[in-house]
Amino acid sequence: MSWNQRTQKSVRQPISHSKHLPIMNKLPGFLLSCLLAFIAGHLVNYSIIFLAIDWFESPMLAGIGYGLCFGPPVILGWLAGAYCDRYSPRRVILIAQNAFLISLALLYVALDSSSLVQVALLLVAAFFAGVGWSFVSPARFAALPAFIAEDKLTAGTIALNLMVMSGFGIAPMLVKNVAVNYGYQGVFIIGALMFVVSSLLLALLQYHPESSVITSEQASNDGAQQRQVNEPSLWQQVRDGWRVMLQPGMVKPLLLLSMITYLLMGPMQVLLPVIAEQQLHLTETAQGNYLSLVAFSLIVGGLLSMASRNLGKLGWQLNLSLLVAAAGLGSLALITNLTLSVLVLLGSGIAGGMAISLIVAGLNQMCDSAYRGRVMACYTIIGQVIPALSGVFSGMVAQVYGAQYSLMIAGGVIVTLVLLAIFTLTQITRLDHFQQISMVKDLEHASVSK
């Protein structure tokens, strides 16, 4: 019996079986809570980017702020994964979302501060947002199995990823429209309210009776007399997670491919606002709508992946989708016609949405439930750190050479990496369907032998 199975009962059972909390039930309520949190989280990110450009006309500062939003997971993300496997992911989420409230409060104070103080508050707010993302993202994926039947996990993971992409797309449109009509004070108040409602919904949700968490609790009850063992330290759990992810199988190549995929996100978030303003000459409201097309197309791609995952040849679906997404991103630097730019952006986003949805669904299905928190933490670290680094680099290149040149470089680099992946990550190229793979037996054997 794993530590994850033994501790879930003690931490989670009082909430999941409480007769005093009728409230919302299972997956729909969980997805709504996620959607509100992801909209509000990306609202913080985009506010930092937009304010850096509006206040200081600095793509570099926007890139640094974006980097701080997703930099802390490099260290904290590993701890978050271990916490999610050791304790209740729901509790991790409820605590971590307070970091976003601190970030919003700092941004609110910055509105009436001097320029020097604004820079400091902007960057500190970005750091607190990064702390929040470090824990909230992996905990959301780790918590999902508690709210869905075990045999529906792949479809549920894609649905959760759609909430992630919806938040990514709704946020810029919301920021721009609210800022135009009510100022950034209104933006920050709306963001705070979303986090409060999200936390309340999550705290009052019931677990699905056929979820893997309930199954684990029942098994834990049956083996209650066998649980008196020495438990691993938090650091040992982190190390065990690394060893699981490095073992032969599909998890490691899927994580590597996700690194290439998330290189797309940094240039999109940092450079597309500049392209929309300076190259397409859009108004503020139109800029928000243009940027929201990214998420709309990602959502469409995610929906398409729910059908395409049953068609086979998943490896080629992944690789070709990434090629289309990267080529489309780079070509946006050369397009000045709004209609054509919108069409290319939609095509690129749909392809990227298909790729990332298939990757995250494969990871969540192929990893063992006892290590799901740590595997998904690694995925979310990649999904936060890689865009942050690519965003910082793209912002620096744009500061010197312009946004168009920077966007072309980003597209070219990603196309090259995808072509390399086709020939080197042969496990991906040969992948036909997702299959459940146990990665724990060798690790448990090695641990016992020690």
What does this structure look like?
This protein is an all-alpha fold and 450 residues long. It has one domain: Up-down Bundle (Growth Hormone, Chain: A). Helices cover 80% and strands 0% of the residues. It contains 18 helices and no strands. α13 runs antiparallel to α14 (338-366). The longest helix is centred in the middle third of the chain and has 51 residues, at 153-203. The protein is globular, with a radius of gyration of 21 Å. The model is unreliable at 1-24, 214-228 and 436-450 (pLDDT under 50).
Structural class, by secondary structure, is mainly alpha
Output the CATH homologous superfamily.
Answer: MFS general substrate transporter like domains
Tell me the domain tally.
1
| Elements, N to C (H/E) | HHHHHHHHHHHHHHHHHH
Number of helices: 18
The end-to-end span amounts to 18 Å
- Strand content bin: under 5%
CATH topology: Growth Hormone, Chain: A
CATH architecture: Up-down Bundle
Mean of residue pLDDT values: 80
> Low-confidence stretches at least 5 residues in length (pLDDT < 50)?
1-24, 214-228, 436-450
Largest sheet: none
Please bin the fraction of helical residues.
Answer: over 70%
Radius of gyration: 21 Å
Organism: Thalassotalea mangrovi
GO molecular function: transmembrane transporter activity
Keywords: Cell membrane, Membrane, Transmembrane, Transmembrane helix
Domain Major facilitator superfamily (MFS) profile: 21-429
